[in-house]
Amino acid sequence: MFRPPSSGASTDLEVFSPLIGTGGEASKPSLIQAISSGTKKYKSKEIIQRTFPHNSPEVVRSQLPLILHGQSESAVVDTGAKENVMSEKLARKLNLTVHKLGEATHNFVNAIGQNIKAIGYAEIRCSLREEPSQFSDTRFWIFPKMAVPLVVGRKFLEQTKGLTKLRHCLQKIIPSKGLNLRDLHIELPRWRLSCRVGDSTVLANPDTGSDLDLISSSYVRQSGFRLRNLKSNRQYVQFADGSQKRLSGVGSVPFGLGFSAKE
């Protein structure tokens, strides 16, 4: 989530991976897209998504093949979430026992701050498909509807070393053309990444479960960045709970990681 420097007025901004900018070199201006939001969970009333320039590669998604309850399934990798989540349909397919919510509650929200309610959770014996001997009992929160059937969060990825030592287990896929871009944000941001947007230092919420990067459109207007109309095939984004939202603009901003974009 983007935030302006503490010395000025605070405006919350959401940014999702893939983030552009490496090493000590500022990235080229990148595209952003705006989306309206009536939520009160964020200080701004609109969100902007930043995507790659038109001449950049296709969106590439990461998934991790798993063995769940003795069956092979692939999960979306999402560093923006701590918890693991699963659709009710997949839970039925795996014949899992779903524990209804009592004291074991957890707050989930989509990318525009709308609450997402879990129906319960299941404890599952789980391992990476390529490391079947390394298994553990893992909790998955169950939702009645999801954009994807299975998501593993940061805690699981750290424990299994799925993004470090065992990164070779990841599979890269390119989604079919015509499918909506996804933003699988399911929890309030926990990590921050220092970035430069224009002349300002801001803090971003890195999230590998998203095809998009989001910032507040009010911040874009405040910073003097210009917005343009969207192409017809990129006007909608799908959230973790399966809902969709129409986008409202596209523009270009100087963007870099942890340093001044002017350097």
From TrEMBL:
CDD domains: retropepsin_like. It comes from the Eukaryota. This is Peptidase A2 domain-containing protein. It comes from Rhinocladiella mackenziei CBS 650.93. InterPro entries: Peptidase_aspartic_dom_sf. It holds the Pfam family gag-asp_proteas.
